[in-house]
Amino acid sequence: MVLAAFEVPEAEGASFEAFLSGLDYRFQLDENNDAYRRFLTA
Questions:
Q1: Which string of DSSP letters, residue by residue, matches 1-42?
Q2: Please, are residues 16 and 8 in contact by the beta-carbon 8 Å criterion?
């Protein structure tokens, strides 16, 4: 498992998700996860 965070402008969110889907690599958005928030503020 790999944890990665990307800060993407809100206006580009849909195109970024489409890009990730096109990679054919399993991912999950976890914006409401406490560990995710801590990772971004570390």
A1: ---------GGGHHHHHHHHHHTT------TT-HHHHHHHH-
A2: yes
Distance, CA of 38 to CA of 11 (rounded, Å): 24
The one-letter code for the residue type at 6 is F
* Residue in the structure block whose two tokens are 């570390």: 42
- At 1-42, the pLDDT tens digits run 777 778 899 999 999 999 999 998 888 887 788 887 787 787
What pTM, to 2 d.p., does this model score? Answer: 0.60
